[in-house]
Amino acid sequence: MPRFPEAPKSALIRTANRGGKPDVRSAPERAPKAWADARRARVSRDDLEGPHPSTLRAGPTGADGGRGDAYDAGPARPDPTQPDPTQPGPGQRWSTWRSVAKGQRGPDPQPDWLVTRDAALDTELGILKTGKEADAFLVERAVPLGAETGDVVEAERCLLVAKRYRSLDHGQFHRGTEYTEGRQVRRTRDQRAMEDRKSAWGRAVSATQWADAEFVALRELWSAGAPVPYPVQIDGTEVLMEFVGTEVTDDAGRTQAVAAPRLTRERPSDDLLESYWEQLTHGMTVLARLGFAHGDLSPYNILADGERLVIIDLPQVVDLASNPFASDVLLRDCRTVCTWFAARGLEVDADALFADLLAQAF
Q: Pro residues bias located where (predicted)?
């Protein structure tokens, strides 16, 4: 195969005085004057003077009566030092609502406050809480003004919590066997990998299992009317859910999100304490009817959003039917919450609550 492509035949000019051999000289070398004349003939007036001013748009008039920036030859080139407004900035990403499968989104009906448009941006605002197995981040999902069609009058936005689970190598949750006993995964090879503690794939599947367990439990509990955050979606080891709290605006007009306090910090009145107890026992009853025990229920995993209680942190939900430790876990949950309410003057019985929940489960 030749190293270079063959030259066109028009470039191989045969002359009599060279015995028919091709003349490989360039056109300027063969006929300098003729080449120069042809080149000048091809040069137009526009090449020398530029386009006629009548074809350009006049800029603003200068202070001296002149044209100032007289000619605008088109849109300005983008400044490479400035961020591109059409792309997510630092700490941002496009909404992942459409990128996950339908079964990985929250249950229907979706709340009115949830933003699901493709033009929405997820902006990470900061960390809310660090835990033994995951960290929780505050995320704003918002559609910028004028996005997509330019007819958006008011920006759509909502606040979410992104709970991101760590791998087993970086987690601090060491009581996993007590909670995962009896759990099954979809694929048997994943189940075998999880049983092998030395397998990197098994550790990755185990980390995903915690996120899956919480998302599935939240879906079922929210659909059944339990006081839990709305589960927005799950993507790998990240669970997006409703932010429970309020937004406060200071005198300077700055808005700050304030998460609802944990129940352990509250000192409710007697009437509110009774209301909290009714809400909590209702949530525990719904859990039991679905065959679950929370597994780590305490005043630290219950939010007091005004007069409303919200149960959070459900990755360790226990299956009451298949887990051999389920009764012990459920009794521990009952005793923990009853101790807190009894310390604040409400007469409660942990053993009676335990018996009632077992009756609801079976």
A: 77-88
- Alpha-carbon distance values, 29 to 11, 24, 136 (Å): 13, 10, 76
Q: How far apart (Å, rounded) are the C-alpha atoms in residues 312 and 291?
A: 17
* Beta-strand relationship, 245-249 and 238-242: unpaired
* Nearest one of 324, 326, 296 to 311, comparing CA atoms: 296
**Share of residues in the chain with pLDDT > 90 (%):** 49
All domains in the chain, ordered by first residue:
96-259 (3.30.200.20), 263-361 (1.10.510.10)
Structure tokens at 28: 């300027």
**Mean pLDDT calculated for residue range 105-125:** 93
Structure tokens at 69: 């920036």
305, β-bridge pairs:
308
| Band (57; pLDDT cuts 50, 70, 90) | very low
Give the pLDDT band (50/70/90) at residue 9. very low
Residue linked to tokens 């496009």 = 94
The β-bridge partners of 161 are 138, 241
- Going across the sheet that includes 156-165, the strands are 92-94, 121-130, 134-143, 156-165, 238-242, 231-235
The residue assigned the tokens 């030259």 is 7
The answer to whether the beta carbons of residues 153 and 121 sit under 8 Å apart is: no
Q: If we measure between CA atoms, which residue out of 290, 340, 359 comes closest to residue 350?
A: 340
| Cα angle for residues 140, 145, 150 (degrees, 5° grid) | 140
Tens-place pLDDT, residues 199-227: 555 555 666 888 999 999 999 999 999 99
Rounded Cα distance between 266 and 57, Å, is 68
Q: How confident is the model at residue 48 (pLDDT cuts 50, 70, 90)?
A: very low
Instruction: Label residue 21 by pLDDT band (50, 70, 90).
Output: low
pLDDT for 279 beyond 60: yes
Residues 6+ apart with CB under 8 A from 37: none
- Amino acid identity of residue 161, one-letter, is V
Token couple for 120: 């929405």
For residue 81, what pLDDT is reported? 60
